[in-house]
Each structure stands twice: as C-alpha cells, then as structure tokens.
C-alpha cells in the first residue's frame, strides 16, 4: 500500500457560517485553480444544472461577492452556498448504492510535490468504463476519499499496459501535467517486445496518421501515411535494445500521445507488440486469449523540471533483466524540440 497521503487533513462541510442563513466552503490549497463550478461539483456532487442555477441567482458567492460558474477559486477563498446544500449532498450520497471496500492501490513509485507516480499492473484499467468499475482511478479515489481534492490519474495507459502512471494530488499539479503533455515537455519512454527482427540498427523515427476505425466494441486505430486526411499525427522514437529473428526488444519514446499509438504504429510496420491480438500478434502461448497480456511497459516518465519516475517491467526474461537496469541508470536525454500537434494528447 502507498504511504500515508501527503495531502492536508480532509475538508468536510464546516459548521462556521458567514451569516445566519448560509454556510461557507473554504478552499484548500490542493483545490486552488479549479473553476467554481468544478469545485462545487467535487465538494457537493450535485447536478450541474442545479449548481448553475444557484450561481446564476446569486445563492453562491465567492468572498462575499457574486461570481460566475467559470471563475477560478484560490486557496483561502470562502465560497458561500445555500444552507440546505450540505444536507442535499448528504441525501444524494445516501441514495448511492454502497461501494465495496477500497481495493489495494498499486505500489507508489515516488512523488514530487503533488505529482505521484504509481506502478500500474497490466489488466487494471486507468479509468472505469462500460462493464468494469474497478480501475486505478476508483482505487485511488476510494483510498483518499476524504481528501479535499481527490487524487486522480493525469494521463492514461491501456488496460493491458503496465508501468509508470502519473496521478495528481492537487488541481494545480493536474493542470501542470496536462500542460506538459500538450507542449510535449513530458518525456515518456516505454519498452516493448515486438514480433520479428527490427530492421533499424540505430534510433529511428516512426510517423503516421492515426484514425479510429471499426464497429462499437471492436474499434482500433488505423495507421496511414503522415498527413492523411482525417487522421491525427503520431510520432515516436524507436531504439533497438535486443534483436533476434523471432522478436525484438525496443525502447520507444513518445513524441505525441495517441490512443493505442505504440501498438498501432508497430503493427503498421509489421512488428506488432507481442501478445497484442487486437493488432495482429500471435498469442503469447497456445490457448492464450487475444488480450491475455501485452509485452508493453511504461518504463520512465520525466517531468519538465527533470524529476524521473521509473520502474522495471514485470517480465522474467534475461534481456529485460540485463538491459533495463542499465537504462534506468542513464539520465533521460532531452529530445530535440519538436513542434507538437495543435490538438491535445490522448495518452
């Protein structure tokens, strides 16, 4: 289990009032920077339309003044809400079916301020979705349920990808990570076993245009030549670590972040990630399901300031055991400045 949360004591609706008919919600440092509407939704978990109406009619005030839904709150602000708001929130929570006890949170690799890094295991989704509620996000939320700002994953890894995943324990940290993703200043490196002999002896750049294709439930990303209409630019740097006729171990640095990017790009050049049946790879062993496991691991993430989070893959093979510690001992080299696409990275 991770160590005790570095967050301040959880903030619950206080009894203090700034007048006889309204109660106040003081803004904690971890909540600073949020839009007022988001702050209220996180605190009260009430319908957005209701919160909008309270703000519009002046029943919500920030530091004693009328305010707008998209004003940003700062640490120490007082947000006045109607006196019945906490009771409404409590009744709404009581109607929610009881949740199962929080499950174990994956190992905490380290933290830098309010930026945390977890070692996500393969098989655990980053966020809940159709048909599955268990996820890294719900486990973190359950473990720190009483925190003023619930820690949340700041990006995503595919369900069957393991390794380093960043979470934000404050709204400011969440914005910093997402800004770094947009600007291309967050270094993300993966290791992958792929099928076949990788043909390039030195670092090679892969560039494609990716677009989603397929029916609901069977969608996957299709790779086309760069600049293809309707696709999103995808680029990565690939360095071979170990190569044989049957398989190759690669170090991949993302220059963009797209859904299934590494998986789709490797399949497009004829070297799908081992175990990735969705993109045409053979099963890892006879009778294995198409998505039993992927030999794809988030090895290292480097923050813009240089702080490094890293963890070894769970694979028990001699190449990984020999090559990975050497990689982790090397400082991550800054990539040449590459203009990122205008749209927001997906992962």
Helix percentage = 10-25%
How many DSSP E strands?
15
Q: Give me the strand/helix succession.
A: EHHEEEHEEHEEHEEEEEHEEH
Q: How many distinct helices?
A: 7
CATH fold description of the domain at 176-329: Pseudouridine synthase
Averaged pLDDT: 82
Sheet with most strands: 11 strands, mixed
Terminal CA distance reads 25 Å
Strand content: 15-25%
Q: List low-confidence stretches.
A: 1-21, 334-347
CATH class of the domain at 176-329: Alpha Beta
Globally, the shape reads: elongated
CATH superfamily placement of the domain at 176-329: Pseudouridine synthase
Structural class: alpha+beta
CATH architecture of the domain at 176-329: 2-Layer Sandwich
The radius of gyration computed from the alpha-carbon positions, rounded to a whole number of angstroms, is: 23 Å
